[in-house]
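It is worth pausing here to work through a concrete case rather than discussing structure prediction in the abstract. The textbook approach is simple: state the sequence, then state the predicted structure, then interpret. We follow exactly that order.
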Amino acid sequence: RKGKRATRHVYIANCGRGLGDTRESISRRCAEVAVPVAVYVGAGSVSHVSFATVEEAQALVDACKATLDWVLKFAEIEGSEGCAPVPDSVASTSSVVVDGLRVVYDFVTEEEAA
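Step two, the predicted structure:
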């Protein structure tokens, strides 16, 4: 949801698949200021980006004040405070170890697959 205090999450109005935006185009535009750790492209005209720090999110909001196309607000994501940044791709999590989590690579047996 949209919030008033600065967070590492940013709500972007006038930005989404309905307006021709893609994950790559949003990431590229944000990267001019700071590289996002997660990008959600909405089906209509609202998207969200998350950064590693509040300062990076603030830099994007400040940089976009002069533009007329994106409308940015800080977003409050319930339960997100104190959480690690969400990676943009599961490929980037190969080094992450989560206590109690076990990855089962071959969860379908040869017999079940036949």
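Step three, interpretation. The chain is about 20% helix and 15% strand. The radius of gyration is 17 Å.
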